[in-house]
Amino acid sequence: MYDLYSAKIRLAGKLENEVWKHDLTAPEIHVLRHIHGADAVLEITDSGKKVKRSEDQERSRLAKFYRNGPEKAGEKLIASIFGVAGALPTTVPNVSFKEVEEFDEDKDEIVEEKIERTPISAPKPADSTESLLT
Fold it and tell me: What mean pLDDT do residues 100-129 have?
């Protein structure tokens, strides 16, 4: 059984090309990080849903969906990330369930109120003759 997530994906790691994907499994997040870059999968949130698949079914699904080229290319990609056999991750660590509320205008105001700007003053010029004597 796999937890399902939503995440923002930066295609090829580019800031100008972001898309949201939903109902991602933990192995799929690893595949996306492999394809687009380790830091290209952002704002991962647990959707609160689960899907029941065997590891073989998940490997097959990912190989079919993320193949680029010949039929066996997907299988090679998945094997290069997870190995030929073995357990796939079922969860993404350090991700908690998040309510659908994505933007809260009140939080903007609170963040701005907490910012304290300390004026930076220029250092006072030293008396040149006094600094030469010491």
Answer: 41
